[in-house]
Each structure stands twice: as C-alpha cells, then as structure tokens.
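Practice problem 4.
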C-alpha cells in the first residue's frame, strides 16, 4: 500500500508559572492538587483554541461519519469547550450569593467561618492521608511555608472582617485589586520588566480605590452621593477601617500568591500548601475570637452558646459557609480547563454580581462613585488579563511533525 504522509502543526505553550499561580486565591482554593499535572502551567484558552479531530483525508467514510457526529453534538461541544469559563462563572455567582446571604443574617462571621475551616481542615487532612502525602515535607523551607500560610490566613481573616464593615460590592472591588498587587509584587521580587498595560491598570485601580473609599479629604458630604448609603455608614472612621482592612486583605493575598510560587518551585504539592493555610487560619480565628470573647463589651461578641450558636440564623450561615466548598471545587475545575488569565477575569464578575444583589434586594443602594470605582477596577483586570493572554499567545511555538502511515 502506498505510503501516506501528513504534516500536523502542534502548538506548545511556555506559559509563565506566576500567571497560573495568580489564580490560587486562598478564599476560593480547593483541597486537591491543581498543579500536579504539567498542563496546569501549559494550557490554551478555549476562546482561541479548540480541539480538532485529526482524520485521514482519503478516508471518506470517517469524514462523513465525523461530520454527522459533529452536527449532532455541536451544542455539547461548545459547552464542553467553554466549560472552564462556565465553571468559573457559576463559582463566582455561588460564592457571591452565599456571602451576600450570610452578611444579611446578622451573625458573628468569624465564628461561622471558624466552623467552616474546621470542617475544611478535616476534609483536607483526609485527602492528604488518602494520597499518602507528607504533611510536613522534609524538602521545603519551613519559614517560607509558614510565611505563605500566615499571609494567606491574614488575607482571609481580613476579608471576613471587611464583610462586617463594608457593603459587599465595595469589599469585592477592593479585594480584587489583588490582581494588580500581584503583578507589581512579581515585578519587584522576580525583577520582571514593567509594561505599559501594568502601568495603565495600576493607575485605573488607584482611581477606582479612591472612588470606592471616598475619603472625606477629597469627597465632602456636599457631594451628590446617595443619601441612603450615607445613612448606612454613619461613622466615617468605621468606613475607613473597612477600606484599610479590604486593601490589606488584597495585599496579603497577593503576598501569599507570590510565596505560593516559591513553594511550587520546590515541588511542594498544592494540597499540602492548602492544608497549612487552613491550619494557620483556624488557629488565627481561634485566637481572634478568644480575644473578642474575653475583652469584648458587646453581647454579640460574648461567648454564649444558647443565644449565639444555637440560633436559626447562625445555623443557616454555617451551612452556607460550608457549602462554599462547592464553588471552590468548581473554581479548581475551571483552572484545569481554562487559561489562568481568562479565569481571573471571569472571577472578577463577583464585583458585578454583588452590585446587582446590593441594588436589587437592599434599600441601601450603591452610590455613583462606588459604581464608577468598581468599573475602573474591572477594567484594569480586563487590561491585565488580556495582556497576559496576548503574551501567552506570542510565546507559542508551532512545530511541524510528520506522521507516516503505511
């Protein structure tokens, strides 16, 4: 039989590991290893690339049957192709809705999430034991592991504190400045070259943060802002405290992300890193709540099992907080299927979801400046994510490979 020769163009990617690591948000991280497979750092975006079945051009029967199969399953193929984006979008919606409802239940949030982390820690330990991983690997820098866990834990605790001090849209906007913080930290620590998109995104983020924070030195009460929002934030000091906590949350998460990359370079499994983060966060929550129970002057902070921990609202909030493990798993599935920059942009939809929930279900509406600030931060994330995606496409190499069939 005559030889048939075909040339196939195979695309390989040299993605920057820190781009992928930038999606390891400790508030959305799952318990399983997302980086055990090299494909975690070497993926194509479903927006520009989709799998194509390779068939022999001379095999008419296969071509005909393949076309029929493609027509019958076209919708399913598109869903599968964009499954990473769908997973990320659903995860962002679930995470935002659960936080929005928990905030309205008027419970002590740190107590709720302490129980959540106890459950999550148990699941994580069972998973590590099942996989026969070492909880304390001998080949790692213990100080580096502790530093990463501590910074990530501080970021998580600050997020839950900020949830009590700020409306959810403003908290989400300030927290997602972590994308810009991460890019700047990578420039400093890994000495990467600064680019124009990073400069533009940083400026937009700074303006957006100012619009959301609305410091009295720049924005006086005579400014035309929504009166209902002014009533909800009677104490300017409390608002500034919430803004500071939210920004510190974003910065701490960014530091955790950068240190996470250092640990991944030492071949430490992500599930082990996650377990140390959960353990550190649990101890931090216990210490924080013990302090409040002992020194707090308000009844809400006092330790009272019957009046605080056996109420319907607290039970509902604990169930919702525990169910947040579902969007965590969905986020990890999206990271496995989609380009990290796309996942980052889609995750930022939490800002839009929180704005919609705030302005539909609550009497306290977001003012115009806060909405403008949210739009600016979202724009900066789109710019940075699109730039990273473009760089990834530029770094792809096409190598022709000849396959001979007899």
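Answer key:
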């Amino acid at each position: 039989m005559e030889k048939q020769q075909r040339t196939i163009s195979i695309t390989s990617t040299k993605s920057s590991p820190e781009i992928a690591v930038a999606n390891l948000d400790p508030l959305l991280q799952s318990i399983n290893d997302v980086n055990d497979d090299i494909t975690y750092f070497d993926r194509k975006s479903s927006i520009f690339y989709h799998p194509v079945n390779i068939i022999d051009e001379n095999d008419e029967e296969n071509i005909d049957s393949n076309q029929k199969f493609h027509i019958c399953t076209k919708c399913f193929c598109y869903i599968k192709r964009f499954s990473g984006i769908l997973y990320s979008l659903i995860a962002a919606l679930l995470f935002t809705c659960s936080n929005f409802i928990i905030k309205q239940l008027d419970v002590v949030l740190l107590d709720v999430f302490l129980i959540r982390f106890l459950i999550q820690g148990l699941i994580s330990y069972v998973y590590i034991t099942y996989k026969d991983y070492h909880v304390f690997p001998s080949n790692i820098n213990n100080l580096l592991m502790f530093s990463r866990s501590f910074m990530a834990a501080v970021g998580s605790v600050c997020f839950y504190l900020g949830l009590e001090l700020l409306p959810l849209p403003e908290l989400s906007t300030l927290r997602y400045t972590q994308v810009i913080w991460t890019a700047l930290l990578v420039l400093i620590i890994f000495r990467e070259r600064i680019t124009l998109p990073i400069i533009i995104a940083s400026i937009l983020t700074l303006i957006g943060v100012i619009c959301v924070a609305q410091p009295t030195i720049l924005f006086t009460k005579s400014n035309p802002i929504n009166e209902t929002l002014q009533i909800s934030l009677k104490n300017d000091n409390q608002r500034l405290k919430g803004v500071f906590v939210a920004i510190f949350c974003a910065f701490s998460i960014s530091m955790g992300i950068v240190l996470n990359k250092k640990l991944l370079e030492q071949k430490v499994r992500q599930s082990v890193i996650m377990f140390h983060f959960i353990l550190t966060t649990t101890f931090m929550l216990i210490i924080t709540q013990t302090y409040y129970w002992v020194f707090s002057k308000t009844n809400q902070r006092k330790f009272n099992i019957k009046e605080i921990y056996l109420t319907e609202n607290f039970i509902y909030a604990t169930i919702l907080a525990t169910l947040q493990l579902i969007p965590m798993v969905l986020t990890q599935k999206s990271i496995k299927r989609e380009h990290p920059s796309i996942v980052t942009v889609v995750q930022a939809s939490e800002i839009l979801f929180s704005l919609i929930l705030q302005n539909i279900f609550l009497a306290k509406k977001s003012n115009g400046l806060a909405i403008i600030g949210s739009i600016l931060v979202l724009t900066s994330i789109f710019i940075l994510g699109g730039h990273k995606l473009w760089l990834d496409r530029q770094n792809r190499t096409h190598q022709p490979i000849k396959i001979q069939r007899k």
